[in-house]
Specification:
This protein has 91 residues and is of the alpha+beta class. It contains three helices and three strands. It has one domain: Tetratricopeptide repeat domain (Serine Threonine Protein Phosphatase 5, Tetratricopeptide repeat, Alpha Horseshoe). The N and C termini lie far apart (39 Å). This is Tetratricopeptide repeat protein.
């Protein structure tokens, strides 16, 4: 579906809420704040905490005051650390 200059594409095999935004005529997804924030949350839900943290850091490079990205980064970093007792960090 194209709306103005933005194409919205749903990807098979991913959550229905995963939507990639792409400017018309571009081969790559634009480096938008919303894209990285949403993809980071998807990685987090898939327990891919390092990839999630990388996307949240990208958001913070774009807007260092982005509170949601900072909070999600903290969660991803905490979840990726091994716990003291050797158990699962995200339980």
């Amino acid at each position: 579906m194209t709306t103005g200059r933005i194409t919205i594409t749903h990807h098979k095999g991913l959550s229905p809420s995963f939507v990639m935004f792409r400017k018309a005529g571009e081969e790559q997804a634009p480096r938008t704040l919303l894209f990285y924030l949403l993809r980071g949350r998807i990685y987090f839900a898939l327990t891919q905490y390092d990839k999630a943290a990388r996307d949240f850091r990208t958001v913070l490079r774009m807007d260092w005051r982005h509170e949601q990205a900072a909070a999600w980064l903290e969660r991803a970093e905490r979840a990726s650390r091994p716990s003291v007792d050797g158990g699962d960090a995200h339980n």
